[in-house]
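User: I'm new to structure prediction. If I give you an amino acid sequence, what do you actually give back? Let's try with this one:
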Amino acid sequence: MSLIKYNNRSIKDLTTTPAAAGGNTGALVHIKTLTASGDSTLNFVNGASGVVLDDTYPIYKVEYINLHPSNDGDYLRINFSIDTGSNYNVEKTTTHFYAYHNEGDASGFSYDTASDISGTGDATIAPSVGNDNDQAFSGSMFLFNPSSTTFVKHFISTINEAHSDNLTVQTNNAGYINSTSAVDAIKFVYTSGTIDSGKIKLYGIKDA
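Assistant: Good question. You get back a string of structure tokens that encode the predicted 3D arrangement of the chain. For your 208 residues, that looks like this:
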């Protein structure tokens, strides 16, 4: 393994670093940031507005940052498309479980059969998010090999939210898109209101 020599004399004055051997400057590549402002839905669509969601990367990561609903107790849900967003109705099979701890020091852990899905509807990512001024949710989702035309497409989501009942809730949702067609778009939507504020970021993860 070769040593990298910095161009500046002092680390505190460092302005640039040379690329590592092989030219790999980092595995996580930012693709697009969506900033919500009272939107009914937000979408990443391959080929639209600078979005890449194809075989460029084997894994894609979505980050949710302080997504705040307009309606108290709203559910953020997702769906996927195989026709660049013309339809968001692909078959999915998911699991959904959560742990909670409230402000009165009570806690629990549960599987949520009302929020899993076996069908074409929207899948719940964040249930019953509070809409107090200081409430929102954050987390991330990984989508694996969405351009595959051989296998189903797996996704794993983990978020933490300020629940409408004043709980901290860690929600885990995972499953597979039961289609061998390439997935090329993702939709995010609250069930009854709008995405009042917050950001959703899309990254590609380079192959090793």
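You can read the tokens as a compact description of the fold. Here is one thing that stands out. Residues 27 and 104 are 42 Å apart (CA to CA).
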